[in-house]
Amino acid sequence: MWKQIYKVKNYNQQITFYFKMAKSSFEYVKTFEADDTLLPNTWIVIRLDGKCFHKFSEDHNFSKPNDLRALKLMNYSAFTVMREFNDVTLSYGQSDEYSFVLKKQSSLYKRRASKLLTTINSKFTAAYVYFWSKFFSAENLKYPPAFDGRIVLYPIEENLIDYMKWRQADVHINNLYNTTFWTLVLKGKLSPMQVFCYTFRQNTVFLAQYHQIKMKYCFKNST
Ligand SMILES: [Mg+2]
Fold first, then answer.
1. pLDDT(183) > 80
2. Fewest CB atoms within 10 Å of the CB: 23, 46, 72, 151?
3. pTM confidence score
4. Using CA atoms, how far apart are residues 192 and 187, in angstroms rounded to an integer?
5. Residue 123: helix, strand or coil by DSSP?
6. Rounded CA separation 74/70 (Å)
7. Backbone dihedral angles phi then psi of residue 181, each to the nearest 5 degrees
8. Right CATH number for 43-167 from 3.20.20.150, 3.40.50.2000, 3.40.50.970, 3.30.70.3000?
9. Would you say 198 and 170 are in contact if contact means Cβ atoms under 8 Å apart?
């Protein structure tokens, strides 16, 4: 009996040895992995953006120019990310995009870019799908949406503030344009070509004078 136990033990040791040998001879492939550690002491900004959301919004009957259900779903997805990752100190969204700012001293995933981007993007996208019915009760999700993502590093506060100002200016311009465009088309009964012939200032004046429309604060400033 003891002989048998010894044989089994010996056999297991041999197997372990062979696996270790095999592992070490293949392990060199790890050296092909790129080191994507982000610079220390910099603000990490992760911006996600909906892929082909122009088509996606049409396929899911988003109301124009702003669909509150869609905006709330984006916010809730961002909230889901922030609830899970304490290192995300600020997030800002507009339309089909969301920016997440990580603490300057964050050591999340050892600041590895691919880990940070893929994890935050997949959490956001999964939340968007998971909570879809919470906001779009009458509208079925016809196919899975996708978001692309990028990481940008900002070394000083001024750069970060300018980044936020840039996104805020973008939402203002886009919403002014969209509100103008869709009001002129839906209420003004103009064709898209006629709308394009108006200048930016003419559009703004037209909205204010003939349609008594002022940009809503929440749309103008986003979320
Ligand atoms: Mg976009």
1. no
2. 23
3. 0.77
4. 12
5. helix
6. 6
7. -55, -50
8. 3.30.70.3000
9. no
Q: Which long-range contacts (CB under 8 A, 24 or more apart) does 25-32 make?
A: none
For ligand 1, the distance from its centroid to the CA atom of residue 55, given in whole angstroms, is 12
Q: At 89, phi and psi to the nearest 5?
A: -95, -20
Number of Cβ atoms within 10 Å of the Cβ of 176: 18
Determine contact, residues 151/44, Cβ cutoff 8 Å: yes
Q: Determine contact, residues 76/133, Cβ cutoff 8 Å.
A: no
For 20-44, how does the pLDDT look when each residue is reduced to its tens digit (9 = 90+)?
Answer: 666 788 999 999 999 999 999 999 9
Residue 99 alpha carbon to ligand 1 centre in Å: 11
Q: What are phi and psi of 206, to 5 degrees?
A: -55, -45
Instruction: For residue 39, give the DSSP letter.
Output: P
* DSSP letter (8 states) at residue 38: P
Q: For the chain, which residues make up each domain, given as ranges?
A: 43-167
CA of 169 to the centre of ligand 1 (A): 14
Distance 160 CA to ligand 1 centre (A): 20
Residue in the block written with tokens 């070509």 = 193
Kindly report whether the peptide bond that precedes residue 155 is cis, defined as omega within 30 degrees of 0: no
3-state secondary structure of 112: strand
